[in-house]
Amino acid sequence: MAAFRRFIAGLAILVAASGSARAEIIDRLLAVVDTQIITLSDVRAALRFGLVPEDVSLDPTGAVLQRLIDRRLMLIEVDRYAPPEPADPAVNASLAAVERRFKDALAFEIALTQSGLTREELRRQLRDSLQQRFSTALQVSDDEVARYYREHPEDFTRDGQLRSFDDVREIARTRVIESQRAAFVRQWVEGLRRRGAVQLLYLPTAAVTK
């Protein structure tokens, strides 16, 4: 029902109060993922509350939209396996981090109102973000760690001096794991895109404004 209401809002037209014939679209439908819609308001809210990284490309709206499409595809797939709910303290910590993006509680409440979100709806989105994160324990060999160290000396250089491998071994191991996990997620999302029902309706005509 909520999705249906947002769909209707996405098609709504508001006639300007000046009495002119110009009509202003108050929201735009940008994509449909499976049966779930993504609107321009969703894109703006994602940026305002830090649900996705900011983008500095020539088309930030399109870039953020693609991230939201990937996010929806991942959540749809994750929900099939009924994973355990994230712990409340983790969700509360994420919500508190979002609140710190604003100068005070009033600014936060104003942002919620402007985005058409309640506090609980934002909390639910943050919970979904935590739920979709991968916690798979990856094992990497010492050879892989040493190779990463050799191929990425800039990561381990301090004050112009390359730190010894023994000093940064565990840092290098963490970087390898992060790199492999990111590659796994990219491949997984590419597969979801091929199998998923995504209808892209966006035309790059306007930039996102927070």
Give a short summary of the structure:
The chain has helices at residues 2-11, 40-48, 60-79, 88-99, 105-115, 119-131, 142-151, 165-195; strands at 13-15, 23-25, 29-33, 36-39, 157-158, 161-162, 198-200. The chain has 210 residues and is mostly helical.
Spatial order of strands in the largest sheet: 4-3-7
- Enumerate the spans where pLDDT stays under 50 for 5 or more consecutive residues: 1-25, 206-210
**Helix-strand sequence:** HEEEEHHHHHHEEHE
Helix content: 55-70%
**% residues in beta strands:** 5-15%
Global Rg = 21 Å
Structural class: mainly alpha
Globular, elongated, flat, extended or rod-shaped: what is the shape? globular
**Number of H/I helices:** 8
Number of beta-strand segments: 7
> Averaged pLDDT, please?
78
Protein described:
55% of the residues lie in helices and 10% in strands. The protein has helices at 2-11, 40-48, 60-79, 88-99, 105-115, 119-131, 142-151, 165-195; strands spanning 13-15, 23-25, 29-33, 36-39, 157-158, 161-162, 198-200. The two termini are 27 Å apart. The chain has 8 helices and 7 strands, in the order αββββααααααββαβ. The protein has a domain at 136-188. α2 packs across α3, α4 packs across α6 and α7 packs across α8. It is mainly alpha-helical and 210 residues long. The strands form 3 sheets. A 3-stranded antiparallel sheet has the order 4-3-7. The chain has a two-stranded antiparallel ribbon with strand order 1-2.
